[in-house]
Design a protein that fits this description.
This protein is mostly helical. The protein has 59 helices and 15 strands. A five-stranded parallel β-sheet has the order 7-8-9-6-10, with helices on both faces. A three-stranded antiparallel β-sheet has the order 1-2-3. Strands 13-15-14 form a three-stranded antiparallel β-sheet.
Length: 1322
């Protein structure tokens, strides 16, 4: 039979007859063997096998696509009928097959380098044709013909079967000749003719020379899959036996046998593994080439007893949809916005595998992947895991973008770098110049859970970006508590630039609807954070079959029946399935047959297996057969949690009770229950393994097992620095509280152990953990501990209350403190507790209780506290204090630091009482306390509290007449920062200096950045109250000087969002007041207002502090809205409430009050009061501008210009307007620059002498984005211009169409349109 040939067009290939090519390959192989190049023999064999398999794939595709009737049964098709195309250029020997002939087919191997040492990649088939041929033999059609006989008429079915059988037989013959280089022995297939059924020849087929298909192709013996007895003789067809003896891979032998078995299809004697069509054959050959090491080559392991199932550990099966969802979500994050992705599913469903599939994408896009796994045993340390995860990022950044990140960290954190270093020690890798701060927790220095959240938020904002997004993967968050999840919510809901992709996995069958996970999802949704949730169920049968095929290295069609059984028993749970297969292997129900070189099994026995649907049963059964040492090791590690450091096992091995754990570790590693990473961390391979190991301990013995384990570690590690292992020891031994309390000496020792663990957790900012350990320590103390263990009791009591305070559990902290204060023996022992108590009360807004506490302690310290103090006395005391300071001067400031601890403590209480008295006492009392504190320091020397004492004093007593001296004192106080460690006082220092003093002499803009730092430092260090004071002054100065109202509104909204965590009602109320003002100035609140409004309370109540802000902002709003009468009313109310010290709001109100009085005077309203108001406003601006031209000169010049317009001093008024505009422009006060432009423009417009000059002033106003009221005046001017243009028209100008009829009117017509156009632009 003749075949058409189409040669490749390329000139770099040469065609060789296939038989000649096989001869040359055999010669090469023989030459290598003769030279005894043993190292090359195996490689040469593998290369030759891949080449031959490549050719076989091409031939199979040819046969499958051959036209109906083209292949007759009597045609002798051998390899002599084929040629191959071989590359002329040097190449990898297994990659030089470029094509096969005939039938227009080229089989090409991918030209990439081999990956992971594998030879062979994806084989692609390109079909070309010189003459059109109809391909009618499709794989799906043949399969349908075989399996659905009823769909075809009788003879059509038989014809399709016979033709497909012929193709399979021909391909089997070619396979044999291709791999053996021998002719196919037809007589080797002869069997008893009576035993062979016949197939009636189709009428469509022409007459055959032979009787029928089955008489020519018969099998010697059918195999029964799973029959282990007959499996000892794997291949009984003579030609297959011959192939096996020649060393042909078992996969090729099996394929050839299954092809021959198809010839007897329908007679009841063929194997279930027989092929159904040549299309299935092509799929199998393609699989051999896709992964030859797994499917094509034989396993060379000679020890069949130690043969392992070859799982693809890193392959994710059956999760294509979920993989796409998580990849798309991360891609959205890489564009600059944080997002959350939750994965629910039962244990073993592949949740972690799904997340790990994304790691490559994260790395490719320049991102960082950090991970922490929660478990049931680590619930006592909920926050430390999240902190440690972020600590990993620093090490990842070191090798990528360290200089840029280090610079940004310095800029963003500034004075807070030491706090960040304490929270994340690995920051020192990025900033080597930093020295690890002392971790001793003193009063007022401990951060709390909120400050940890804020620090981590700032850190993520720095290290994450669209170029370098951070993926945080928290596994098993069903074990996390609300503290850890609060951190996640804070970071994800941030609106100022963080770029984090959070992935949380949880067991949805182990959580209730009220779990914190669902609360987190709801809060994220409310915060407009895009959230995706997926649920993983079991794999479907097809994916499970693929997974089993990969593990057994067998064709998927052969594994199909086994996978169906396993699917029914495991419900598609991947981990359960793998463990079940391991169980079958361990019981010899799944065996590797060395003769067949494949895995074999008995389906009936496996189907009859009665197993539980719980994988723990399988694992526990397996573990029960392990040695005692291995079981002990697994029990120990299960008590520790999901991972353990190898050093802990080393500690345990030193004790007699656990001496065998070292040997057990080796056994557990070999058996695959645990793995060890490069850092010596031991981990269970899966949660279920840990659970099964923990179940080896009887429930009744678990507490005692934990206790003995902890006690063994405690006895070995007592007195040693074991680092974080102390948490492990304390957690284990605390299970045996009932046994500890029986031994008084032991209970004291364990209490000290827990106190050390709690102290270490406090130093690491894990306050919930610290509180847990410290409470455990308190519970272990004997009843007489205050009498017999006073020092321990005092220290433990203070630390516990401090931890409770850091956890924001103020009631518990106060109770513990008061109990300690009752038992303290002297005032010195009480002072730290009283100071902490005052901070706890202050955090709750109990200012009266703070005042009473501090006044009582100051009295105990020898200070006199009057019941009341008059303004007259406070004025005299102020003068005395200022005089004392001027007499001592620089000499006192240059003095040495005093060692007087009592002075330090006394000033601390004065600092606290000053702040409290601002809210509950008169101004004279506040002045008294500040003066007393300064005098005390002047008399007794300098200490760390002196700078804050001086700043509090100057912020309270500064007035216009003493401003210069007070500013000098404040500057000197700030200079003391370089001599003393005052980082913990930064929020208070910045608030008092930049918020209350420096504005008189320095630009508002200069104070904004420092006040922001004070705000961030306060929230980061746990001093949220003072940080929020800095925040309010920040927004106040921003409103005075911001170039953009929209950016100001955005900043306020960010702070409002942040305050949801801190729940400060007062601060939130003030921010809402600011927001309403900004919203009104932008668009009268039409599009920028929000539903939430500020609550002011009783405006007639003298103790109602927000009413001052209400009157101040109402005055500003009314002025810009043009409500002159109301502006005057609210301005007077505001000025009457301004404190004696004077604040910037007082001067701003006086400025607008003066402008409003000028407007009233123009309208002849309240003439006398208006004149007086103008005088007061100008006098105030003159005083303020004397010290700070930057902040107030433009305001003074504008008031003067407006006053001069009333007295008809035209040229002087113009000069003042110009000076005001220039001064405002120089200072960056864009709104006031626009206001001055408007006033000047309106002045010229009203004079009606020079509209061109008026227009020039209007054009000097800032862009529309920052314009407020003056754009309305410009609009009015344009209408005025339009009106004048109409008045210039002829009598016909009322009718604009008539106006266009005369040439003269055209000019006026278009001039009018110009002004109308200008109006429309506005």
């Amino acid at each position: 039979m003749e075949y058409l040939t189409v040669k490749p067009a390329a000139n770099d290939v040469v065609s060789i007859p296939l038989c000649s090519w096989t001869e040359s390959e055999e010669a090469k192989r023989a030459a290598v063997t003769d030279l005894a190049l043993n190292n090359n023999i195996n490689k040469c064999d593998k290369e030759s096998i891949i080449q031959r398999t490549t050719i076989a794939y091409g031939i199979a595709e040819l046969l499958m696509r051959s036209s109906s009737g083209a292949l007759d049964e009597d045609d002798e098709i051998r390899i002599d009928n084929f040629v191959v195309f071989v590359s002329k250029k040097p190449s990898r020997s297994w990659d030089d097959i470029k094509g096969t002939e005939p039938s227009y087919l080229r089989g090409l191997l991918e030209g990439e380098e081999d990956c992971d040492g594998q030879m062979g990649r994806c084989l692609e088939v390109e079909l070309t044709s010189a003459t059109p041929q109809e391909i009618i033999s499709k794989t799906s059609q043949v399969a349908a013909a075989v399996n659905h006989d009823e769909n075809l008429a009788g003879m059509n079915v038989l014809a399709a079967v016979a033709e497909e059988s012929n193709r399979c037989h021909l391909f089997a013959r070619i396979l044999y000749e291709l791999f053996t280089h021998e002719p196919f022995p037809d007589d080797a297939l002869a069997v008893d003719a009576d035993a062979a059924p016949t197939i009636k020849e189709p009428t469509q087929k022409r007459a055959k020379k032979s009787n029928d298909v089955s008489s020519r192709k018969q099998l010697m013996l059918t195999r029964a899959k799973g029959d282990f007895d007959r499996a000892e003789t794997p291949f009984q067809i003579p030609c297959i036996v011959r192939m096996q003896k020649l060393g042909i891979p078992a996969s090729i032998c099996l394929m050839t046998q299954n092809l021959l078995e198809y010839a007897l299809r329908g007679d009841g004697r063929q194997s279930d593994d027989a092929y159904e069509s040549l299309g299935v054959v092509c799929q199998d050959v393609h699989l051999l080439l896709l992964d030859p090491d797994r499917f094509l080559f034989d396993n060379l392991n000679q020890n069949t007893d130690n043969m392992q199932l070859l799982y693809r550990k890193d392959k994710l099966y059956g999760r294509d949809k979920e993989e796409t969802l998580i990849t798309d979500a991360f891609c959205r994050v890489s564009r600059g916005k944080s997002e959350a992705f939750f994965i629910g599913g039962f244990s073993g469903s592949g949740k972690s595998m799904l997340v790990n599939s994304l790691r490559g994408t994260v790395k490719a896009l320049g991102g960082y992947t950090i991970k922490h796994k929660f478990d049931a045993m680590s619930k006592e340390q909920p926050l430390s895991g999240v902190i440690s995860a972020f600590n990993q990022v620093c090490l990842m950044i070191k090798g990528r973008d360290r200089p840029a990140i280090a610079k940004k960290l310095r800029e963003v954190f500034g004075v807070d770098l030491s706090l960040l270093l304490r929270l994340l020690p690995n920051v020192s890798v990025l900033l080597p110049e930093l020295v690890n701060p002392a971790t001793s927790v003193e009063v007022g220095e401990a951060m709390n859970a909120r400050s940890v959240c804020f620090l981590l938020l700032r850190f993520v904002t720095v290290v994450s970006s669209p170029r370098h997004p951070v993926m945080l993967f928290l596994d098993d968050i069903q074990w996390a508590d609300s503290t850890a999840l609060d951190v996640i919510h804070t970071i994800l809901s941030d609106t100022m630039g963080s770029c984090m992709f959070f992935v949380g996995t949880y067991r949805d069958n182990e959580v209730q609807i009220d779990h914190d996970i669902f609360d987190l999802m709801e809060r994220l949704e409310i915060s407009n954070v895009q959230t995706t949730t997926v649920y993983l169920t079991g794999l479907d049968q097809a994916d499970l079959n693929t997974m089993i095929s990969d593990a057994l290295c067998l064709y998927p069609r052969i594994c199909k029946s086994l996978s169906d059984i396993l699917f029914q028993k495991t419900k598609g749970n991947p981990f359960f399935m793998l463990e079940f297969m391991q169980s079958l292997k361990s019981r010899d129900l799944l065996q590797y047959n060395s003769h067949q070189k494949r895995w074999v099994w008995n389906e009936d026995i496996i189907r009859a297996e009665d197993i539980t649907d719980n994988v723990l049963h399988l694992l526990s059964s397996k573990m029960n057969g392990l040695s005692d040492d291995v079981q002990t090791l697994l029990k120990v590690m299960a008590c520790f949690g999901s991972n353990t450091n190898e050093s802990v096992i080393g500690y345990l091995s030193e004790s007699a009770e656990y001496a065998g754990v070292r040997n057990g570790l080796e056994g557990a590693l070999i058996d695959g229950f645990i793995v060890k990473d490069e850092e010596g961390c031991l981990q269970f391979v899966h949660d279920k393994v840990r659970e099964a190991a923990y179940n080896l301990i009887l429930d009744s013995d678990k507490k005692q097992f934990h206790y003995h384990l902890g006690k063994a570690l405690y006895s070995f590690c007592d007195g040693k620095d074991v680092g974080d292992t102390i948490f492990l020891i304390a957690s284990q031994i605390n299970h045996g509280k009932e046994w500890i309390l029986r031994d008084k000496d032991l209970s004291i020792g364990i209490a000290e152990l827990n106190m050390k663990a709690g102290k270490k957790a406090l130093d690491g900012c894990d306050h919930e953990t610290a509180y847990s350990y410290l409470c455990a320590a308190l519970s272990l103390l004997p009843k007489d501990h205050w009498e017999n263990h006073y020092e321990l009791s005092l220290r433990l009591n203070f630390l516990t209350s401090s931890a409770a305070n850091s956890c924001c559990q103020y009631d518990e902290a106060e109770q513990i403190l008061r109990r300690g204060l009752t038992n303290a023996r002297c005032l010195d022992d009480q002072l730290p507790s009283y100071l902490l108590l005052s901070q706890i009360l202050q955090a709750q807004g109990k200012v009266n209780d703070v005042y009473d506490t501090c006044s009582a302690i100051l009295t105990e310290l020898g200070e006199s506290i009057p019941e009341s103090y008059t303004l007259c006395k406070s004025a005299r005391m102020l003068a005395e204090t200022l005089k004392m300071y001027e007499e001592l001067g620089d000499k006192w400031l240059k003095g040495e630091k005093t060692d007087d601890k009592t002075l330090h403590t006394t000033l601390q209480f004065y600092n606290v009482i000053v702040l409290a008295s601002l809210f509950c006492k008169s101004f004279s009392m506040v002045a008294y306390f500040t003066c007393k504190a300064v005098q005390l320091s002047l008399h007794r020397g300098l200490c760390e509290r002196t700078p804050l004492t001086l700043l509090q004093f100057t912020s309270i007593v500064t007035k216009d007449d003493n401003a210069v001296l007070c500013y000098r004192i404040a500057k000197n106080a700030m200079s003391l920062r370089e001599r003393f460690d005052v980082e913990a006082q930064i929020p208070e220092l910045y608030y008092n200096f930049y918020g209350r003093i420096a504005w008189r002499f320095e630009p508002f803009q200069a104070g904004i950045e420092h006040l922001r730092q004070g705000f961030e430092a306060g929230l980061s260090s746990g001093h949220a109250d003072m940080g929020l004071y800095c925040l309010l002054h920040t927004i106040k100065f921003v409103l005075f000087s911001s170039p953009s109202l929209k950016s100001t509104l955005k900043e306020i909204d960010y702070y409002l969002h942040l305050l949801k965590t801190y729940k400060s009602v007062v601060t939130r109320n003030y921010l809402l007041i600011f927001r309403e003002t900004v919203s009104l100035l932008i668009d009268s609140g039409e599009a920028t207002s929000i539903q939430e409004k500020a609550v002011f309370g009783d405006l007639n109540d003298p103790g109602n502090k927000p009413r001052e802000a209400f009157f101040h902002h109402s005055a500003i709003r009314c002025y810009w809205s043009g409500h002159t009468e109301r502006c005057r009313y609210f301005s007077q109310k505001s000025m009457n409430l301004t404190g004696q010290g004077g604040q910037p709001t007082a001067y701003i109100v006086k400025f607008f009050f003066g402008l409003n009085c000028l407007d009233l005077l123009r309208n002849n309203k309240q003439v006398n009061k208006s004149r007086e108001g103008i005088r007061v406003a100008i006098a105030a601006m003159e005083d303020a501008a004397t010290n700070s031209e930057w902040n107030f000169m433009n305001k003074l010049r504008l008031l003067e210009a407006e006053q001069l317009t009333l007295t008809r001093h035209h040229w002087r008024a113009i000069n003042k307007y110009d000076a005001s505009i220039e001064s405002a422009k120089k200072a960056g006060f864009i709104h006031e620059q626009g206001l001055a432009c408007e006033k000047a423009g309106c002045y010229f417009k009203n004079l009606d002498r020079n509209n061109k000059k008026a227009l020039e002033y209007f054009k000097q106003a800032p862009s529309k984005e920052v314009q407020i009221k003056f754009r309305m005046e410009e609009c009015a001017l344009y209408w005025h211009g339009a009106k004048r243009s109409y008045e210039g028209c002829s009598s016909h100008t009322i009718n604009m169409e008539g106006c266009a009829k005369s040439m003269e009117s055209y000019v006026y017509y278009y001039y009018g349109l110009y002004w109308i156009y200008k109006v429309l632009l506005l």
